[in-house]
Amino acid sequence: MDNWIRCYRPDPDAGAQLLCFPHAGGSASGYHPLSTRVAGTAEALVVQYPGRHDRIAEPFSERLGDVVDAALASLPPSGGRPLMLFGHSMGAILAFETARRLAAEGRPPAALFVSGSEAPSLPRKARLPDPPRDEDLIGEMRLLSGTDDELLNHPEILQLALPPLRADYAMLFARSYVPGPPLHCPVVALTGDSDPRVSLEGVQAWERETDGPFERHVLPGGHFFLSEHLTYVAELVAAYVPGRAARTVV
Predict the structure, then answer these.
(1) Segment holding 101, helix H or strand E
(2) CA 14, CA 250: separation in Å to the nearest integer?
(3) Nearest partner of 5 among 35, 25, 33, 41, judged by Cα
(4) I want to staple 207 with a disulfide (CB 3.0 to 4.6 A). Which of 1, 35, 214, 222 is the partner?
């Protein structure tokens, strides 16, 4: 593995690999808790975007497709295990584009988990100006509650947080949805019931992206609901590992 992939809990005996994409402005470490919860059933491989943490000296990515290319090129050997995809917020769009790429190459993922995101086919809502100002980004972080409000009053924290967030939003602004063949794999969409940026109808629209099974799970919480439901999410991931007993609704 190179700079693009982190594996916090190596587990070559796990039944599947789970490739995870962080949210806008996020980093691989945000998936450390989920990596621990899925251990034993799936080996979590987390994408580390450039320009943050140990890659802070590297230039930010400018295109979502570049991130997909690099992540796939950096995947460690599977050992014959199936690959599942997981993404939250911006990461859900990246996971979806990765699923499309894999399907086009004849090696579709075993399942796609999309969290905290409306379907990619829906028009992008004008939430922020393009390009956003610092105050716009700070307001968005406060709205989504992904960062402790007290921390947003510290200039040194903002100096680290704002550049990657701005770069990631620029990638999202530059993206255009291109219709294509539906996926054939299961798509599992998760959302918080009080997310201020994601509607239930927008989450349901993910169903259009696959002709395989589709599930929508609405859990208590806001945009960053995952941290409160790690056991639930880990059980859901485990239920989709190929070869396990027939899944039951969790």
Answers:
(1) helix 90-104
(2) 21
(3) 35
(4) 214
**Structure tokens that stand for 83 in this block:** 């690959």
How far apart CA 197 and CA 184 sit, in angstroms, is 28
Please check whether residue 177 is in contact with residue 121, taking contact to mean a CB–CB distance below 8 angstroms: yes
Element of type H or E holding 66: helix 64-73
The H or E element containing residue 236 is helix 230-239
Residue 217 phi/psi, 5° resolution? Answer: -120, 120
Listing DSSP states for 129-197 in one string gives: -SSPPHHHHHHHHHHHT-S-TTGGG-HHHHHHHHHHHHHHHHHHHH------PPB-S-EEEEEETT-SS
The sheet with strand 42-47 has its strands ordered as: 5-6, 42-47, 16-21, 83-88, 111-115, 187-192, 214-219
194 classed as catalytic: no
> Of 132, 61, 128, which is closest to residue 97 (Cα–Cα)?
61
At residue 146, does pLDDT exceed 70?
Answer: no
- Residues 67 and 76: their CA atoms lie apart, in Å, by 16
Tokens of 143: 């709205």
Cβ(187)–Cβ(206) below 8 Å? yes
Residue 126's pLDDT is what? 63
Please identify which of the residues 35, 89, 115, 117 carries the catalytic annotation.
89
20 φ, ψ (degrees, to nearest 5): -115, 135
**Which of 121, 73, 71, 108 is CA-nearest to residue 91?**
71
DSSP 201-217: HHHHGGGGGBSS-EEEE
